[in-house]
Amino acid sequence: MAELLRIAMDDEDGSAQLVVEVEDDEPGMVRASRVGDRMREASVSLEEALAPIRRAAEATLRTFQAAQPTTVELEFGVKLNASAGAVLTKAGVEGHIVVKLGWEKNDSGA
Questions:
Q1: Residue from 74, 20, 13, 75 nearest 46 by CA
Q2: d(Cα 62, Cα 55) in Å, to the nearest integer?
Q3: Contacts by 53-60 with C-beta closer than 8 Å and gap 24+?
């Protein structure tokens, strides 16, 4: 059965929260209140959870920019987890990162 995970967000007054649905068998799930409630508390803020994903995106982008494409599109499947924070999801048996590169033809005659 799915449960709700409350994740604090780093805002000016510290009151913003994101609630996401997670499976109740996820590692790190800790009851927030009385038995029977389906709301859990995340161990890190949303920004802390997403920081490693952001760094992975930056490193991936730098790698593919070396090919000098006109456009680079990255797609990461991200799953929020109570103890691990943000995790790259699986597509089949591999981690989920989709990279699309595009080049536009230069019609300037040069």
A1: 20
A2: 11
A3: 53/78, 53/86, 53/88, 56/88, 56/97, 60/97, 60/99
Tokens of 11: 């805002």
pTM > 0.70: no
DSSP state string for 60-80: HHHHHHTT--SEEEEEE-EEE
Per-residue pLDDT of 70-99, as tens digits, reads 999 988 888 877 777 777 776 655 566 788
Helix-strand-coil split of the chain, %, nearest 5: 20, 40, 45
23: which residues sit within 8 A by CB, 6+ positions away? 2, 3
- In tens, the pLDDT along 21-30 reads 776 655 554 5
Q: In this structure, what are the phi and psi dihedrals at residue 86, rounded to the nearest 5 degrees?
A: -100, 135
Q: Residue 106's closest CA among 66, 65, 70, 67?
A: 70
The Cα 8–Cα 18 span in angstroms is 6
What confidence tens digit (pLDDT) does each residue in 55-69 have?
988 999 999 999 999
